[in-house]
């Protein structure tokens, strides 16, 4: 067998010498040579590499490897190699000749034990010695599950590194971890065996021709795009990958990963970074591309649970039960469909929605990145006089069409009313089937280009690996930045029940979604199947807002959603009244989780709110920098401030961070805030103070037994919380009690006990600070949801 290989190598070597000067020998070891990926793409990609490169001075040997014993492995590999095909324009005789050479250079070997790897190394060296070839490098392609990585990596590192002057490249296929923690662990493990520059992590979407064209296209059309590629002109960006297949046959993998880990964290995120990154001067510099990608990750706004919707095709759970032998009662929560709204908080993209969406069992297979531009033109002449396809009033969009769909091929589409693009000669103008409409316009409304020669992503990437083009691969930093972004969302969705969908065309409008104010939601209500319970069906009147008294003050109680909506209405009414009477409205807000829904409600449903005349104050703050996610100000910023137009000078964060230190007594932050209040708020009497109530009876950051803030002259105080971060700044009870109105919002079952207790106690602020809230001349109103009030 080895003699045959050596003869084949010599023949190939002579061929090379005829073509040009010899550049060295490359050994390619395909681990998992008989697996699915190898059969479908990798052997064909290696054959293409051989066709492209063998005539340019390199010689090759291909080692297909697996755990299977030699004879059986050889047979399986021969099967995998049967279907190799040549480019369409190659003469059949040539094709047969090349195939034959390739087959002679490709041998199977079992790689199982450390000795097997040592033998491989010995054989490569012996071949080189025999033929007198100089070694250029070795490529190890890991087409194996990640649990096998460590062993293989150790063996390669200890016995299969090439000699001095030759390179080693190891190619890794996803999954690269399951979340940030596991990805870091795997990366650290691999880092003990390989240098960063030796690792090529594959994201096969980076090898798709339309994706690989994003940066070159932006580069070649800089002039036209420079003024357009920003928040002033882009309406939204959609990055979509729809599939018709489902997860049958691979639920073992899918059950652990789900659609977000499977394709959003990697493929769609990579496309997003290519669209959004600041364009490097040299778009083929791997180092510059990586740096600019990382800048995008840094600017991504953190995802909230409300940033995503998830679905699952109906037969999925049944498939899981069957394939993974789960009991009949098992129901999976793994999403097979997800749409996520992403925002990039930088000057270029602030406010532009990026929508990432993917799903299995949908109505069509298609992938694209679509940049939809705003249309700010008004056409005076009637539509029949508009210049065909050129009118500024027609939709304006740029689409990197990754593949499939009605177009059936990769393409770049540019609306004719945008600009005539320039593409490299490897792309040609294309024509589609007559009458074809894409993204709301006929194909004739676009300049449309497709690759002269279509190439499979893996074959493109193999060529880049061979040429050491690292900009097409995922570095460790890039990978961890992506997991860093996705992990919190994945955790927050872990127990969320996905919406069930029937699959295919039957999905109808069930998965359609909308977005606003940073949130994404299904357009249609879930068609719920109600299981009738005993007793009469509930009537709408059963859910009315309940009005009563709590601690002698008015109480408003309802289910949480209704309660929030009532409170938001009351706040708006108070604001409107205050502005009408005094020209301004001073509102002091608490932090924490209860008011988040209120902030969102105010941000999304209160268009008459007089924000321009509202001053916002903080009831309390944690002693952390204002940019810290723990800071109350950050919560306010994320859920309210960034969605409303409020003058900057009307926003009054607490000065917890002065002289680069946090809440130091000497910096007198509390006194500064008190002075600011006295200067701006008449009589230091807020129009409205929104408070919460802790399970221990605390309110604002006034905790039981607090030595300060419960009485006395001080308006603002530093306090200590029993939970972290311990140090706080807070409005004092005397200041709160000067307010014209105080609203206390209490939500959730966890508050049930304290609600009962506080209903019975008198005025005992030392034990229960909330009991000291009693505005001198203002009004106190309690807002409690049924969970907190009725338990
Ligand atoms: C893979 C995912 O990475 O990409 C699959 O694991 C998905 O679930 C596939 O089907 C889609 O790739 P393509 O090239 O068919 O669009």
Automatic annotation (TrEMBL):
<comment type="similarity">
    <text>In the C-terminal section; belongs to the glucosamine/galactosamine-6-phosphate isomerase family. 6-phosphogluconolactonase subfamily.</text>
</comment>
<dbReference type="GO" id="GO:0047936">
    <property type="term" value="F:glucose 1-dehydrogenase [NAD(P)+] activity"/>
</dbReference>
<feature type="domain" description="Glucose-6-phosphate dehydrogenase C-terminal">
    <location>
        <begin position="217"/>
        <end position="507"/>
    </location>
</feature>
<feature type="domain" description="Glucose-6-phosphate dehydrogenase NAD-binding">
    <location>
        <begin position="29"/>
        <end position="211"/>
    </location>
</feature>
<keyword id="KW-0119">Carbohydrate metabolism</keyword>
<dbReference type="GO" id="GO:2000064">
    <property type="term" value="P:regulation of cortisol biosynthetic process"/>
</dbReference>
<comment type="pathway">
    <text>Carbohydrate degradation; pentose phosphate pathway; D-ribulose 5-phosphate from D-glucose 6-phosphate (oxidative stage): step 2/3.</text>
</comment>
<keyword id="KW-0378">Hydrolase</keyword>
<feature type="signal peptide">
    <location>
        <begin position="1"/>
        <end position="19"/>
    </location>
</feature>
<dbReference type="InterPro" id="IPR022675">
    <property type="entry name" value="G6P_DH_C"/>
</dbReference>
<dbReference type="InterPro" id="IPR006148">
    <property type="entry name" value="Glc/Gal-6P_isomerase"/>
</dbReference>
<dbReference type="GO" id="GO:0005788">
    <property type="term" value="C:endoplasmic reticulum lumen"/>
</dbReference>
<keyword id="KW-0560">Oxidoreductase</keyword>
<dbReference type="InterPro" id="IPR001282">
    <property type="entry name" value="G6P_DH"/>
</dbReference>
<keyword id="KW-0256">Endoplasmic reticulum</keyword>
<comment type="subunit">
    <text>Homodimer.</text>
</comment>
<dbReference type="GO" id="GO:0050661">
    <property type="term" value="F:NADP binding"/>
</dbReference>
<keyword id="KW-0325">Glycoprotein</keyword>
<keyword id="KW-0313">Glucose metabolism</keyword>
<keyword id="KW-0511">Multifunctional enzyme</keyword>
<keyword id="KW-0732">Signal</keyword>
<dbReference type="Pfam" id="PF00479">
    <property type="entry name" value="G6PD_N"/>
</dbReference>
<dbReference type="Pfam" id="PF02781">
    <property type="entry name" value="G6PD_C"/>
</dbReference>
<keyword id="KW-0521">NADP</keyword>
<comment type="similarity">
    <text>In the N-terminal section; belongs to the glucose-6-phosphate dehydrogenase family.</text>
</comment>
<dbReference type="GO" id="GO:0009051">
    <property type="term" value="P:pentose-phosphate shunt, oxidative branch"/>
</dbReference>
<feature type="domain" description="Glucosamine/galactosamine-6-phosphate isomerase">
    <location>
        <begin position="560"/>
        <end position="782"/>
    </location>
</feature>
<dbReference type="GO" id="GO:0006006">
    <property type="term" value="P:glucose metabolic process"/>
</dbReference>
<dbReference type="Pfam" id="PF01182">
    <property type="entry name" value="Glucosamine_iso"/>
</dbReference>
<dbReference type="GO" id="GO:0017057">
    <property type="term" value="F:6-phosphogluconolactonase activity"/>
</dbReference>
<dbReference type="InterPro" id="IPR036291">
    <property type="entry name" value="NAD(P)-bd_dom_sf"/>
</dbReference>
<dbReference type="GO" id="GO:0004345">
    <property type="term" value="F:glucose-6-phosphate dehydrogenase activity"/>
</dbReference>
<keyword id="KW-0873">Pyrrolidone carboxylic acid</keyword>
<dbReference type="InterPro" id="IPR022674">
    <property type="entry name" value="G6P_DH_NAD-bd"/>
</dbReference>
<dbReference type="InterPro" id="IPR037171">
    <property type="entry name" value="NagB/RpiA_transferase-like"/>
</dbReference>
<protein>
    <recommendedName>
        <fullName>GDH/6PGL endoplasmic bifunctional protein</fullName>
        <ecNumber>1.1.1.363</ecNumber>
        <ecNumber>1.1.1.47</ecNumber>
        <ecNumber>3.1.1.31</ecNumber>
    </recommendedName>
</protein>
<dbReference type="InterPro" id="IPR005900">
    <property type="entry name" value="6-phosphogluconolactonase_DevB"/>
</dbReference>
<keyword id="KW-0520">NAD</keyword>
<dbReference type="InterPro" id="IPR019796">
    <property type="entry name" value="G6P_DH_AS"/>
</dbReference>
